[in-house]
Amino acid sequence: MDAFYIARQPVIDRKNRIFAYEILFRGKTPQEEMDKGTLMSATAINNLINVIGIENVIGLHYGIIKLTPLFIERKLIDALPKERLIFSIFEEHLEDRSLVETLKSYKNEGYCFAINDLKNERLLQKQEIIDIFKYIKIDYAELEPETVETIIETAKTHGIETICTKIEKRKDHAEAEALGSDYFQGYFFKEPEVMKEYPIRAEKGSILFLWNLIRNDASIDELMKAFEREHTITIQLLRFINSPFFSLRQTVTSIRQLITLLGRNQLSQWLLVMLFAEESQCGNGNHPLVLMVINRTELMTGLLKLIKPDADKSEYETAYLTGMLSLIHLIFHRPPRDILHHLHISGEIEEALFEGDNLYGEILGITRIIENNDIEKLDEIVLKYNLSSEKINTLAIEAMKKINAFDEALRSLNG
Predict the structure, then answer these.
(1) Are the C-beta atoms of residues 183 and 159 closer than 8 Å to each other?
(2) Residues 225, 75: contact at Cβ < 8 Å?
(3) Kind of pairing, strands 112-116 and 193-197?
(4) The Cα angle at residue 162 between residues 157 and 167, in degrees rounded to 5
(5) Closest by alpha carbon to 163, among 276, 9, 373, 289?
(6) Are strands 161-165 and 193-197 parallel, antiparallel or unpaired?
(7) What's residue 146's pLDDT?
(8) Residue 23 in contact with residue 58, Cβ under 8 Å?
(9) Average pLDDT, stretch 11-36?
(10) 268: closest CA among 212, 339, 315?
(11) Deepest in the core among 320, 363, 375, 385, taking most CB within 10 A?
């Protein structure tokens, strides 16, 4: 599997403190190509968020990321945390009126923007541009000092801060500082620090990307556009939802209808099921992983009903997600705590998975005992929770029926 490379280079303030890190990356490049600041793709977003983790790249500082118009038009920016990131836009792209209007909208929503490598100070004479941008990056190595000074002075009159990049020598830093630049970036301070991880495969990344959008409460319109870009996943999901396994009263023909019928939480759960199914079928065409997931989630929710008959819908959803995520490491082949940390799972679920102290942790422990058919421990459970062996056997049989129905639905989907 090709490695996913990501690098960061610090941006320093006038007191030599780290203000931010510029994030540089590409999936299959040597380090020298990374210095070009390669632009992000949807798969790169997933690798940044779910493999390495933004917090591991920028720490307590800001992150600066270069974006293309296509990235913004497709609303991929919505998957990134606006609170800690500065999105850098190339000067030449600001000739696009549609893009400028979109940037205005995002600015009003709290997103922060920078102009990348501004060369023409006359761009700052446009009020609509001034209103959008908080920072200007200046390629110090390419421009004459007089031009740099003009840009800095013009920016200051409008309350815009400047970052001089390509600061290679002590002399460059001293000159840029004398000209009034607020921040500095370049090899004089530090070369890009490269981090290497192995990526989430494209289709896995796409499924996880959709899952993240739902979990982060993206609007219906944003979800619709995201699903429209993932035709294969959307078709698979619609075919699967319409299978006899779900027993829906009406045929589902659109994602909007699917969200309405199932709700966001159940849709996000079934996207994870599809993730397990996709991983299972990568080998010899069988899907044991996803059947393990169905068994575990059925036992988790069934045990919750036996132990706490008055459990509400949100408690059932937590039990279901706990069971599902207890197997997530089998997909990504990484320590489960690392994976769940990047997925921003609730503390309640993390506690259940790793400490087993709360109700869901106890139910997960019982589920594993049932799966292992540990008769001695099952007898202890019957006494502790005032259950009957008959009820546990019935639960296991019902889970097996659900597995068989799911297996048939998957085979039909792939047939």
Answers:
(1) no
(2) yes
(3) unpaired
(4) 145
(5) 9
(6) unpaired
(7) 92
(8) yes
(9) 69
(10) 212
(11) 363
Count of other CB atoms within 10 angstroms of residue 371:
14
d(CA 74, CA 48): 18
Q: Which residue has the tokens 């600001």?
A: 94
Instruction: Report which residue type is found at 32.
Output: E
Q: To 10 degrees, what angle do helices 220-229 and 255-262 make?
A: 130
Cβ atoms of 356 and 364 within 8 Å: the answer is yes
Residue 133 has pLDDT above 90, yes or no: yes
Query: CB-based contacts of 413: which residues, under 8 Å, 6+ apart?
Result: 236, 239, 240, 243
Strand ranges for 96-204 from DSSP E = 112-116, 133-139, 161-165, 183-184, 193-197
* In contact, 87 and 378? CB cutoff 8 Å: no
CB atoms closer than 10 angstroms to residue 71: 19
Number of H helices, E strands in the chain: 21, 9
Buried b (16+ CB within 10 A) or exposed e, 287-325: bebbbbbbbbbbbbbbbbebbeeeeeeebbbbbbbbbbb
Q: How far apart are CA 184 and CA 253, in angstroms?
A: 53
| Residue 185 contacts residue 164 (beta carbons within 8 Å) | yes
Tokens encoding 86? 């500065």
DSSP lists the bridge partners of residue 183 as 13, 163
CA angle 151, 154, 156 (to 5 degrees): 105
Count of residues making up the chain: 415
Flag whether pLDDT at 1 surpasses 50.
no
Angle at 240 between CA 238 and CA 245, to 5 degrees: 135
Whole-angstrom distance, CA of residue 153 vs CA of residue 251: 62
The conformational region for residue 66 under phi > 0 = left, psi -120 to 50 = alpha, else beta, is beta
pTM of the model: 0.53
- Mean pLDDT computed over every residue of the chain: 80
Cβ–Cβ < 8 Å for 192, 35: yes
Distance CA 322, CA 301 (A): 10
- Segment (H or E) for 20: strand 18-26
Select from 22, 51, 191 the least CA-distant residue to 116.
Answer: 22
CB 201 within 8 A of CB 184: no
Task: Tell me the pLDDT tens digit for each residue of 138-183.
Answer: 999 898 999 999 999 999 999 999 999 999 999 999 999 999 999 9
Question: Token pair of 159, please?
Answer: 């309350």
